[in-house]
Write a structure and sequence with these properties.
This is Translation initiation factor IF-2, mitochondrial. Pfam families: EF-G_D2 (PF22042), GTP_EFTU (PF00009), IF-2 (PF11987). It is found in: Mitochondrion. Keywords: Coiled coil, GTP-binding, Mitochondrion, Nucleotide-binding, Transit peptide. Helix content is 39%, strand content 23%. The chain is an alpha+beta fold. The strands form seven sheets. Strands 15, 16, 17, 18, 19, 20, 21, 22 and 23 form a nine-stranded antiparallel beta sheet that branches. The chain has a four-stranded parallel beta sheet with strand order 12-11-13-14, sandwiched between helices. β4, α9 and β5 form a beta-alpha-beta unit.
Length: 645
């Protein structure tokens, strides 16, 4: 801008002068034209000398243009000299500009500090540029072009700093190898996922195929553990041993999901099986083997191991345990593995055939631990018993001189003072929140439970609050958390030792252990329902219709009376009543009188006539109205949450 405005002013002056000179020339030309016309008219009057004088007095246009050009050239020469002087002064001022040392990747704050300016100066310099000022923070990094822009607009000189760049580290990450030569590949077993709904026989089917008894150990629950074994697989329609089984219906329904069986022209093999009785298990195995051969599944068994972790958990006896699919190479004992940001050395490898022995070892260690705890508990109980006996002896000595009635009264007062608070009193009356702690045997179990809890949609009834979730047996820390938050502990396939259970009982903490996931969820639904306020339900005792209306005088008041006939059940004076007209309840309350003829009665049965009056005098009876006698009962509410089981 400093260079632009002086030049612009000079150009404006030149244009102004040129316009003035042009205007002057036009005026002279018009005047000359006027003179020539006048001379033509008076040619016979004037002499030739006069004409010569006139021509000399008024110069020709070409002479005027020559004068203008001379004046303009002189003016431009002056302007050029001034511009050179101004440029020289600007060059001298540029030499005196402050140098700012900058570097690539500079932040807004660092640039302002280097310029010895406020941060706002940097922001102002970047206005009306492509930079989003709103998203620019003090620690934001600036590109090279914007650093130059700020320095330029601030009237300073740029100097790039020779900062030593950080040495680029060599990539040491482990990456997958390039695809193997097809000639090196050998046939491999297929990786199979068995899917099905709850109680559709997945575990039993696995039992028959791998000859193990996971279902018996699981107590009918959902299989949360993955066993490594070899199966080929196809569509297995299970429970075909039942009389109501309809395999064809299943095949037709699968068509909607683009699963077309061979019977309907597709390429999906369907085998009718019964996992319970073992029917057609061999046919299922043969079908899956045939499918695996058609797929020609192959893998490279050479070189470093590559695979995918399916499941991991920590076992007390074996430490960290991982179930993995080896996709390339051969895994051996002693191999070093890297997964994510962790590494480990393979100490043991086992498949489903090693599990029984591993369980046997773990169960024995747990048994030894429980025996040790029981021994400690017995010692503690014996110590407490001695303390109790000593305290009882001292108490007898203290009350030995008192009468038995006095002793009983003192003991009653002490017991009343020591009476613990009820759980609801402990919770401060906040019954619309259920804090829970989830513990499972492996990550897969906990994840399955938490996924079901994610479907909870009844927070308007009772808020479900997850305090903690983890893997392993119930610990003292879990009990302390539950006591603090007045919550409930749920365990799936885990244990709670005697000491833990005793501690929980003393602290009023519920521990609920399950081996089947949907039983645990049902228990959770019941616990949620118990936190809801009771629902008041009306139970009809009797109904009567109004046949006539009249009024009686009691003192100075006229009381409306309805003549009724009991149509159903009986009317009981001490119960509650409501008046219904055209299907709408217009009154609820009590009766002040119920008479049969002239006798006051408390109960009147079906088919009998009666007269009755209400505790509301402003209510008018109409023939055809209905009187209903009912009682209210409190019923436990049930949560509206449906997890889908």
């Amino acid at each position: 801008f400093e260079n632009f405005f002086p030049r612009r002013n000079m150009n404006q002056k030149i244009l102004k002068l040129e316009n003035l000179l042009r205007f002057h020339t036009i005026c002279r030309q018009l005047h000359s034209l006027y003179q020539r016309r006048m001379l033509a008219q008076w040619r016979h009057v004037f002499s030739s000398a006069y004409l010569v004088w006139t021509a000399q007095l008024y110069p020709q246009p070409w002479q005027t243009h020559a004068l203008i050009r001379t004046a303009l050239s002189q003016h431009r020469l002056l302007v050029t000299k001034k511009e050179k002087k101004s440029q020289k002064s600007q060059l001298s001022s540029t030499k005196s500009k402050k140098e700012v040392e900058v570097w690539i990747g500079m932040t807004v704050e660092e640039l302002a500090r280097a310029m010895e300016k406020d941060i706002d100066c940097v922001y102002e310099s970047l206005l009306n540029t492509a930079v989003d000022i709103d998203s620019l923070e003090a620690h934001s990094h600036l590109d090279e072009v914007w650093i130059k822009e700020v320095i330029k607009k601030s009237g300073m000189k740029l100097k790039w700093s020779k900062v030593k760049q950080d040495k680029v580290r060599e990539n040491k990450d482990a990456v997958k190898r390039p695809q193997a030569d097809p000639a090196l590949l050998i046939p491999r077993s297929p990786v199979v996922t068995i899917m099905g709904h709850v109680d559709h026989g997945k575990t039993t089917l696995l039992d028959k195929l791998r000859k193990t008894q996971v279902a018996a150990m699981e107590a009918g629950g959902i299989t949360q553990h993955i066993g490594a074994f070899l199966v080929p697989i196809v569509l297995a329609i299970n429970k075909c041993d039942k009389a109501e089984a309809d395999p064809e219906k299943v095949k037709k329904e699968l068509l909607a999901y683009d699963v077309v069986c061979e019977d309907y022209g597709g390429d999906v093999q369907a085998v009718h099986v019964s996992a319970l009785t073992g029917d057609n298990m061999m046919a299922l195995a043969e079908a899956t083997i045939a499918l695996a051969e058609m797929l020609e599944l192959k893998a490279d068994p050479t070189g470093p191991v590559e695979g995918t972790v399916i499941e991991s958990f920590t076992d007390k006896g074996r430490g960290p345990v991982t179930t993995a699919i080896i996709q390339r190479g051969t895994l051996r004992k002693g191999s070093i593995l890297v997964a994510g940001k962790s590494w480990a050395k393979v100490r043991l490898m086992f498949d489903e055939n090693d599990k029984p022995r591993a369980r046997e070892v773990v169960h024995w260690r747990k048994y030894e631990q429980e025996q040790e705890k029981n021994k400690e508990d017995l010692e503690l109980i014996e110590e407490k018993r001695k303390e109790h006996q000593e305290a009882h002896r001292k108490a007898r000595e203290k009350y030995g001189t008192l009468h038995w009635k006095a002793r009983s009264f003192i003991k009653y007062k002490i017991k009343k003072q020591q009476q613990p608070l009820k759980p609801k009193e402990k919770a401060g009356g906040d019954s619309n929140v259920l804090p829970i702690i989830i513990k499972g045997d492996v990550d897969g179990s906990v994840e399955a439970i938490l996924n079901i809890m994610d479907t909870y949609d009844a927070s308007h009834e009772c808020e479900l609050e997850l305090v903690h979730s983890g893997v392993g047996d119930i610990s003292e820390n879990d009990v302390n958390l539950a006591e603090t938050f007045h919550g409930v502990i749920y365990g799936f396939n885990v244990n709670a030792g005697n000491v833990i259970q005793q501690s929980a009982a003393k602290k009023g903490v519920k521990i609920k252990l399950h081996k089947i996931i949907y039983r645990l969820i049902e228990d959770l639904q019941e616990e949620l329902s118990s936190r809801l306020p009771c629902i008041v339900e009306e139970h009809t005792i009797g109904e009567a219709s109004i046949l006539a209306t009249f009024s009686i005088t009691e003192g100075k008041k006229k009381v409306p009376v309805a003549g009724c006939r009991v149509q159903k059940g009986q009317l009981e004076k001490q119960k509650k009543f409501k008046l219904i007209r055209n299907g709408h309840v217009i009154w609820k309350g009590s009766l002040i009188s119920l008479k049969h003829h002239k006798d006051d009665i408390s109960v009147i049965k079906t088919g009998m006539d009666c007269g009755l009056s209400l505790d509301e005098e402003k209510i008018e009876f109409k023939v055809g109205d209905d009187i209903v006698c009912y009682e209210e009962k409190e019923v436990l509410a049930k949560t509206s949450w449906d997890p889908g089981f």
